[in-house]
What does this fold into?
Amino acid sequence: MTERQKLSHDLINSWADDLQSPVALHLKQRLVPVEEGDHLVIFPPTYTDIGYNIDVLSDGTRVATIDSVGSQANRMEPIFKEEPYASLVPQIEIEIPIKDKKTGERHIVKRSLLDLAHRSADATVYACPTLGPEIRKAFDALTRNDAGPLCRLAPTSLVFGVWDSRGNPDAKRPRLVRSIIRAWDIDVLHAAAQFNSIRKALDEEQWAELVKEAKAKKKKLSDVGFDDAPGTFRKLGKGAKEIPEFKNGAPNPERRVLGGVLVRGSIERDVTVNLVALRKLQGANEDETRAIRRYVLSLALIAATADFDLALREGCHLRFAGEDQWLAVPRRGQPIPVDLASVEAKRTIETYAEAAVTPFKKDWPERLIHKFDLDAAKKMIAVKEAEEEDES
It folds into this structure.
């Protein structure tokens, strides 16, 4: 067994600077449910019409997606809102005025740029007159292979990937940190439920009045809680083909309410830091290029090695199991074990990041709070409609 490399600032520098250094860092991390027991049942995410995302391999093994790449990125990015990492990135927030449905009063809801699904390319950003133009300039620079402006505004967009599909489609950068959770060798379980309403306590006259009112309003009594409602079959989306509730005289499994998956194999999280993509980032000159790569790599390492909460959804609360074994993957030859998981290694990453952010902090935007503008959002819709008409 090759001896595990000890992490140092020099080693991290080599990953950022040396084109002949490893092409990736990779971790295969074993996860287990917080509930103990021999039969591991967890709930994957449910997608409209297809239910769980399950692939069947050539040998018959079924593999379920437990958390997608995009979902993992959205769980990792917000760690930069809190200390000790908040000081490493600009804390840009967007204020959205919301009207209370009951009182009619307006209040302000704040959203961090680190929470937006499409990061700096999110439509919400472009609906902010004071932020949108700056982001557009940064994306324009990115198409000229200058990542500096975006690095000063929204560096995590370079870490987790970004595509300015609504503005400049040529401004696109792949994820440097890619993570996905899968469960191997699974069986699908189903659920059933029965809601018993107050119907049996009502007399015939009361029931008839409710039925009459429901028909007049074109509503089902079960939808408002006045009739019994079984929960056996799942509803289909509007665009789905009709899947029958019963097939060959028995309940159709494809239509049943899903009840989780029984995991016979393992639950694994694959994390990859793409060093090739990192070393393609450039700045205005050689010194800035080096600074950008080192700074963005420090953020990528923090995100990739963070122990964040794995309470993914109801019925899917996981935890980390065993010791993390990171590998530095060369272009050829065997991967080399490297320490990225110990307390000492994580402290090394933090001190490296604290130094790497220094050249950028002085150029961070002075204005960090921006206001969402409904009129600006409407103009975006109008422009989009005009583009579609031209294309047709």
